[in-house]
Amino acid sequence: MLEVRGLTVHYGGIRAVKGIDLDIAAGEKVALIGANGAGKTSTLKALARMLPAGGEVRFDGGDISHAPPHTLVGRGLALVPEGRGVFARLSVRENLDMGAYARDDRAAIAADLERVYTLLPRLKERAGQTAGTLSGGEQQMVAIGRALMSRPRLLLLDEPSMGLSPVMVDTVFGVIRDIARDGVTLLLVEQNARLALSLCDRGYVMDSGRITLAAASAELLDNPAVRAAYLGE
Fold first, then answer.
1. CB distance 120 to 175 below 8 Å
2. Burial letters for 24-63: b for 16+ Cβ neighbours within 10 Å, e otherwise?
3. Fewer CB within a 10 Å sphere, N or C end of the chain?
4. Does 79 have pLDDT greater than 70?
5. pTM (whole model) above 0.90
6. DSSP of the chain, one letter per residue?
7. Around 77, how many Cα atoms within 13 Å sit in the side-chain half-sphere?
């Protein structure tokens, strides 16, 4: 579903991403782990065309290396950004409606809204509340729900547990597992490497803008270097 070859991202004279390759098959759950500053967020933003980047990116067989960002949503690629990025002055329901802005299939949109409310019942309870007044965990739910309203086939998730209480982390990751069970392909960037690898089939380790290791999640969890550097062991 996703093929990345030689992806590079520059900030002025700084190379944040240094020619990485990635492959994700349809239905896979793939983690991208690494220390702060490794280039993980830059990678996701480049894949979503929110940053200028070099290299080749193919999604579902088509070259999206130079595609306008807004066209990717209609093609089935959505990003849940780091920091949530909710529309703070809009209601929860309005935020969810924004996720479906590129769609005109009203009956299907209504069905997807009910699906989001089933996955995230707190959003239904808070539908009329201004998103900026929600807790961090609730805002994360809004960001996930908004992305789901675009009906993605590939969902990019950037640090979904950041700043959340342990209880809310469990809730959010329970939702992510449910999304994966529905057949959505996932690329997950997550500082909690153990949590990410426990959810995903495979993982890539990123260090200083490069992919340094790629393996099945179980293999990475057993790797002494990964355990020492990212699992606190």
1. yes
2. beeebbbbbbbeeebbbbbbbbbbbbebebebebebeeee
3. C
4. yes
5. yes
6. -EEEEEEEEEETTEEEEEEEEEEE-TT-EEEEE--TTSSHHHHHHHHTTSS--EEEEEETTEE-TT--HHHHHHHTEEEE-TT----TTSBHHHHHHHHTTT---HHHHHHHHHHHHHH-HHHHHTTTSBGGGS-HHHHHHHHHHHHHTT--SEEEEE-TTTT--HHHHHHHHHHHHHHHHTT-EEEEE-S-HHHHHHH-SEEEEEETTEEEEEEEHHHHHH-HHHHHHHS--
7. 25
Angle between helices 136-148 and 92-99 (to 10 degrees): 30
Opening angle at CA 220, ends 218 and 225, nearest 5: 145
How many Å apart are CA 44 and CA 42, to the nearest integer? 6
Which tens digits make up the pLDDT trace of 130-174? 999 999 999 999 999 999 999 999 999 999 999 899 999 999 999
